[in-house]
Amino acid sequence: MSHPAFTDDDRAFLRAILSNPAELTAWLVYADWLDERDDPRAEFIRLEVKRTAHDTTQTERFGIVAQLEELRPKLDQDWVAIFDRPRVENCDEQFAFKCPKQWVKLKGTDDPTVRYCDSCQKEVYYCHTVRDAYEHARNGDCVAVSEAVSRSEGDLRRGPDKHHFIRTMGIMHRPLSQPEPPRRPWWKFW
After folding, report:
1. For residues 40 and 47, is the Cβ–Cβ distance under 8 A?
2. Four-CA torsion 161, 165, 167, 171, nearest 10 degrees
3. Weakest mean pLDDT among 26-40, 55-69, 103-117
4. Out of 21-25, 92-96, 97-101, 167-171, least confident range
5. Is the pTM higher than 0.90?
6. Euclidean distance between CA atoms 2 and 63, whole angstroms
7. What is the C-alpha to C-alpha distance for residues 55 and 36, in angstroms, rounded to an integer?
8. Of 18, 43, 112, 153, which is the most exposed, with the fewest CB atoms less than 10 Å away?
9. Helix ranges (DSSP H) in 84-186
10. Of 151, 153, 157, 154, which Cα lies nearest the Cα of 172?
């Protein structure tokens, strides 16, 4: 796992985390180490841990998600992939069940954007865009799409260029190149 922005100490922490990503103690030890160096990545890790804590309320989760969205673009995207929590997709086409695995619980590999699923015995690819996920899905690969990516229903089956949306200031918009669907007059409710 070589990455120019990662120090040897970073890589040691990340190897420990990737050997058992579901064990949050290593995450928090790494966050403490980052805090000692005034590294903003510590906040990202702590927010991810807090988001899934049992005592976190739904209202708190909304605030945490907003903070995570604000931090994401400021951090290395491959580093973020290690701590992101998207669901695993594209297994349901090959198996009679939807994969119960989450990206964060899969065994890490030397590549921060690839993990291994013991259930289906396949590699799972973390994708930064729907286009990348679509290409992997077309090849039969299992994927986990970054939680920062705006999604639409069925985008892995349909393709990324059909009916996708752009996130602007937290609001979903159609790209300007696509015509707006006809609007129903406000007085018609059906």
Report:
1. no
2. 180
3. 103-117
4. 167-171
5. no
6. 33
7. 26
8. 153
9. 130-138, 155-158
10. 151
